[in-house]
Amino acid sequence: MTSIIQPPCIRPDQLDEQLKRDGFALLDGADVTAWLNAESEDLGSLHSDWSELPPDPHLRDGGRYRYRRHGSFVVEHGKVTPVPHRPHWQSLDYNALHGGMMRWFEPIAASTLQAPVWQRLLLKLAEVANQLRGEQRWFVEAHPFRIDTADGIGRPTPEGAHRDGVDLVAVLVLERHAIKGGETRIFAADKPWGQRFTLETPWSLMLLDDARMIHETTPIQPQDADQPGWRDTLVLTYRQGGFQGPEAD
Predict the structure, then answer these.
(1) Threshold 0.85, pTM exceeds
(2) Which residues of 4-16 are buried (b: 16+ CB within 10 A; e: fewer)?
(3) Closest Cα partner for 70 from 86, 92, 50, 49?
(4) Which one, 94, 121, 174, 228, has the greatest CB density within 10 A?
(5) CB 167 within 8 A of CB 204
(6) Confidence of residue 127 (pLDDT cuts 50, 70, 90)
(7) Fold observed for domain 33-50+66-248
(8) Are 144 and 234 in contact (CB under 8 A)?
(9) 69 neighbors 144 (Cβ within 8 angstroms)
């Protein structure tokens, strides 16, 4: 049986201080629910669209294990403004496998955006970003992911250990179903320090100061070869000054 390394979670009232001090912070799923002032039904309605995510058409490793959508928003002064649908772009400095590509994905489902907790989540994370960098306009990209084990193995981060080229990275684990593996690993960008753990509880949240932390997640495999397995996450990135694009590379 694969051992699970429990994440070093903190209380929500410790979040801002630890993120500034250490460059990362972890919240347990139950605390995230309370932090968002949400009910389990609110979170369930948000997660209901993950079974309809389309395949990622851009995987350069030949895999068929990743399903995703993409959306962009501007968050400022307590308001979330959707941005016309646009491609996701990263430089080769941050993504050696898929960098330099204008990657178009299907937009986030309308029912996801209408979920009661959606705007609350984006605004709450903007408050965290404001505490980290100072209050300003945030350019937010949202990535609903499903990594499955239909082909025997799924890679949450096929690009390996990386940074995202933003200010704040938020990773919410919505569900782990019939899998083993998927261990999260974080490393300091400027010194020999690292930590590993498994985000297992639904709605566990990892927050990273992207300038200071490198992260990756190990591949997942099925617990039972006859049963499909998957790992559902929502990744939200907050960046000051504008969205990433080749004109700014």
Answers:
(1) yes
(2) eeebebbebeebb
(3) 86
(4) 121
(5) no
(6) very high
(7) Jelly Rolls (2.60.120)
(8) yes
(9) yes
